[in-house]
Each structure stands twice: as structure tokens, then as C-alpha cells.
Amino acid sequence: xxxxISIPVECKLSSAEQSRSMDSNTINxxxxxxxxxxxxxxxxxxxxxxKLQGTGKxxxxxxxxxxxxxxxxxxxxxxxxxxxxxxxxxxxxxDDDLSPDAxxxxxxxxxxxNFGADIEFIKDLQDLDEQEFDYVIDGIFGTGLNSDLRGNLxxxxxxxxxxxxxxxxxxxxxxxxxxxxQILGSCIKADYTFTFGSNKIGLxxxxxxxxxxxxxxxxxxxxxxxxEWDAVLINQKLVNSIPVIERTARHKYDGGVVxxxxxxxxxxxxxxxxxxxxWKQGAGAVFLYAPKALLxxxxxxxxxxxxxxxxxxxxxxxxxxxxxIIKRNIHNKQGVLLAGPGIGxxxxxxxxxxxxxxxxxxxxxxxADALSFWENIxxxxxxxxxxxxxxxxxxxxxxxxxxxxxxxxxxxxxxWAQNFSNQSKxxxxxxxxxxxxxxxxxxxxxxxxxxFIFSRAGFGDVLSGALxxxxxxxxxxxxxxxxSLYSAYRRSQEFGESESFGPEHLL
Length: 507
Ligand SMILES: NC(=O)C1=CN([C@@H]2O[C@H](COP(=O)(O)OP(=O)(O)OC[C@H]3O[C@@H](n4cnc5c(N)ncnc54)[C@H](O)[C@@H]3O)[C@@H](O)[C@H]2O)[C@@H](O)CC1
Ligand SMILES: [K+]
Fold this sequence. Notes:
Layout (H helix, E strand, L loop, with lengths): L11 E3 L1 H15 L3 H20 L4 E6 L3 H17 L2 E6 L8 H15 L4 E4 L12 E5 L13 H10 L4 E4 L21 E5 L2 E2 L8 H4 L1 E5 L12 E4 L1 H5 L16 E5 L6 H13 L4 E7 L3 H7 L4 E5 L12 H10 L3 E4 L7 H13 L4 E4 L6 H5 L5 H4 L2 E4 L2 H7 L7 H15 L2 E4 L5 E3 L5 E4 L11 H16 L2 H18 L13
Parallel strand pairs: 1-8, 2-3, 2-5, 3-4, 5-6, 6-7, 7-9, 10-19, 11-12, 11-14, 12-13, 14-15, 15-16, 16-17
Antiparallel strand pairs: 1-10, 17-18, 18-19
């Protein structure tokens, strides 16, 4: 397996600042001028619009004053010249003082008009009849938007949103913050967003999807040395570009050993789900540690799992004195440790877990109830080299209750995950819609699809089992995380709407 996964450029998600710095480095250091970049952005947007609209259509182009307007004006020129479209232009803030490249593009349109092209400039949207155009281009603001829309702008946006015709946004729906996805006063609701050069991170938060419509990435020739990104989008494109995780070892203990500390009285279901999932995912050997009183429950339901009873016949939870036998077995058969599903929150269980973690050298996943012991784990002086190999997998409630998380929106949740991971020196996967991953020795990831369906109980246990198996087989946490998350989604997509999809369908 490769050390690092190869990431398609359109899956690299950048902030507005990163996008601006890629633009300016390509222009000022590398030497492709801004007008050329705009030309490339506009011609790919026009190509997309041609595919969607066909020839001989009428476009309404709504422009601001910056380079975002420049993109719209240049795209209009391609559509007029190559696709016999006619165009109506409205400058929401007037057409004086345009950015230099937008100004040049406006003057080119005036020349086309003189050549006889069907071009009109209007001063007001109020009198415009919707029947006069087939689509709307939003070139009001892109990454340069720096405050709330004020004055007449929210009314204009509202009027555009009231049209029944498709709206295509240049780079970003005007009004959406390119990083946080916050609505700055008012925002265009696009059917498609053509994002240029870098895929903007703010287009991919859950609430942004209502405004972006479908996001189409239009590449620009930024040298890869200048590429900067905050996160990677998990989608089919990414998955197509990475290897499939396969176990090649011949012996069950060579590659793919998973140790699971899970389950307590009344919570054995979570342990079963996690163990079954690790097995289904192809682990060579799965050990499930169980307080002895629970063993009979597992005997009949988990035929493929190696069950190791700890304590005595009356024990229904893990206790500190059980740690030795677990540590000995892990030491003999090195692999990934998964701790937490249904393990309960008794302090004796926490002490057992801390004792095991102190000696566990391999990759470790802390999930569910294991996270309730985080304070104890943090204060137990486990060396950084061991912690670097840990992946914590809280859902939002667990992050808030046990890990001290505070956030008001997806963007803050993403930033919190990054900070937590940096400060605690561990990797973190925070479940939610989207789900975020922040890896110590790898990228940050964001799911590029609706994960709502995975909020039901049981999916977390299945995910942690799959993660443990995939990490143990591939020894590559990036690959394992992307594969585990996306394969569950792909399986959910195979189900028709008539059937209700549950965690059991992943086993
Ligand atoms: N050469 C480049 O740098 C490229 C830029 N591109 C396009 O350029 C865009 C960025 O262009 P700009 O940096 O010129 O910025 P924008 O075109 O997004 O907007 C900047 C203009 O809007 C004004 N403005 C900002 N916030 C406002 C508010 N709340 N109310 C009223 N006016 C406001 C600013 O004063 C400025 O005049 C990108 O999003 C992309 O569409 C692309 O053409 C690719 C190449
Ligand atoms: K825009």
C-alpha cells in the first residue's frame, strides 16, 4: 500500500485565502497572467452551460465589480461567439470602476455588440420579464466578498431567487462565505456552481448545499507546488483514485489482527456489531474480550470471532484486574485495538482501559463509551509516540460531553476537530453530516455526501469495526478511513427507497 494516497485536484478543498494565494502566485511568480486565468475559467464555465442549455439561448448575466464579474462577462463572450446565445447584462453596483480584467472583458463585449451581437445592458431588474431569458449567471461576488450584502443587494438577490429559470453561479453563490458557508445577509440559490481553480471548502458544509446546487470543479493551471488545501472531499472520484484494501497475507495472524474491548451487561449488541463488522471487512483474526458472564451471549452469535473471557463467571463489566490477560494476548498477537462500543462507564472499566492503553503500541481506536474516560486517559502520561497512532471516533454528543467540544456550526466543528487533534496529538473522526476526519499523519477529510442515514444507533459500532479491520490490513489510516466511510455510503445507495437501510445491512 502506498504511504500517501493520491488525491485528485478537485477533491482538495481550499479556503478563500488559499485560493487567492494560488491565484496570485500563479500570476506573479509563475507568470500566467490574471486575464488568461479568467479566460480559462470562463471558457470551462461556458462549456458547462452549453452542455446544460444547448445553442441559441438567452442568458441574463448579473455582475458585481470584481473578477467574479469578469468571469461572467468572459463566459458570456464564449456563449455569444460559440453557441449563438444572446445576453442581457445587469451591473448591480454600476459598471464604473470595474476590476481591470472585468473592465477589459466589458470593453470586448461592447466591441462584439458593435459587430452586431445580440447584447443588451439594463439598469433595473424590476421591469424584466422572465420569458426573455433561459438562464441566469451569477457573477456578483466570489472570494472577494468581505461583508454582508447591504442596500438594494438583498432585494436583487431575492428577485433572482424568485425566477424559475436555472441559476449558474460563478465560483461561489454570491452571498455565501467561501470558508464558513455562512450567509452574508442574503445569498443566491444556484442550480449549479462552477468553482474555479480550487474547490472552495465553504461549498461543502451541510447547509451550503441548499445554495450551491451541484458543484462543478473547473480546473486552472496552478503549478502543484502552489496548491494548498485544508481538507479532502470524500467522494466517488477520490475513491476511484485510491487502491482497494485487500488482505494478501496467508496466515490469519499475518496482517489484519483486531482486538476488541467492548460490551458490558445490557450492551452486548454494540460489541457484536463491531466484531461482526471487523470480520466482514476481512480481518484475518478478530479477538473479542468479554467479562466472563457475557461469554454465553457471544458463543452462539459470533462463530468466527475468537472470544476471550476475562475475570470470573459473575463479571459483567471490565475491571482493572482484567487488564493483564488482555495485555498479554495483545502482546502475543500484535494488531489494532478497538475499545469502547457498549463497554459502559464504570470507573473500574476506565482503569482497565488506561492500563491496557499504557502498553498498547499499535494503532488504537477509541469509540463510544471509551471516550467517557478521556480525562483519565489524558492524565495518565501515555507517551506521544503511542498516542499518534490513536483514532478517536466520537459523534457530536460524545465530542461535547467528553472531549470538551464547543461549536455553533459545521465550520466551527471542523476547526475544533483540527485543534483537538493538534493539541491532543491524536487523530479524530467526528461523526455528523458531514463527517470530519483530522489525521495526525495525513490529511483532513470531509464526507461529500449526505450522511444523515448513518445517524441511527448501531452504525457507529459497525464503522468502528470496519475501521479497525481496514487499518489492520492496510496499515494506512488515510486509506482505511476513506474506504470505511465511503463503502458504507455506497452500500446505502444500493438500497431502494422502499427498504429501510440499517446497520445490519453492512454486516
Ligand atoms: N486572476 C484571478 O485572481 C482569478 C479570479 N477569479 C475570479 O475572481 C474572483 C475573485 O475576484 P475579486 O477578488 O475581484 O473579488 P470579487 O469579484 O468576489 O468581488 C470583489 C468586489 O466586490 C466588492 N465587495 C466585496 N464585498 C462587498 C459587499 N459586501 N458589498 C458590496 N461590494 C462588495 C469589492 O470591493 C470588490 O469590488 C473569484 O471568486 C473568481 O470568480 C477567476 O477568474 C480565476 C482567476
Ligand atoms: K458568484
